[in-house]
Request: fold
Amino acid sequence: MSESLGVGLTDSAARRIAYLASREAQPSMLRVAVLGGGCSGFQYNFDFDTKRNDDDLVIEKNGATVLIDSTSLEFIKGSEIDYVDEMVGASFQVRNPNATSSCGCGTSLGLSSRRLEQGQRPAHRPLASLAAGYRSAARHLPPPGEGKA
Reply:
């Protein structure tokens, strides 16, 4: 696991991010954010971005680049980003020690009120933005029978 400011990236996640980014039209980086919404109060958003912001934490590993904005970083410090491919499906997962609850979808999390008082609250964005990120990633899935990236 590669760690940067307390956020880790597994080899599996780095391989998948590098694979998906290589299929984008422009050089892209995976942006991970915590947004208001989701069934547990907050949700992770995964989307590709071509621009780094001044306040972004940049994690680079094995040809993959992950961006995390400073507000989201407050909520996912100490986390590990992984890519899991199981019989029930494949997805990016965030193992977050700051989460007090989560739901079955794996993209929604709850945070304690004490934790929220210490940092800024994530901006609310409609669930459609999360779905758009998944659609973006889904279009890059390899055809059935092709090896895993």
About this structure: The helical segments are 11-22, 70-76, 113-118, 127-138.
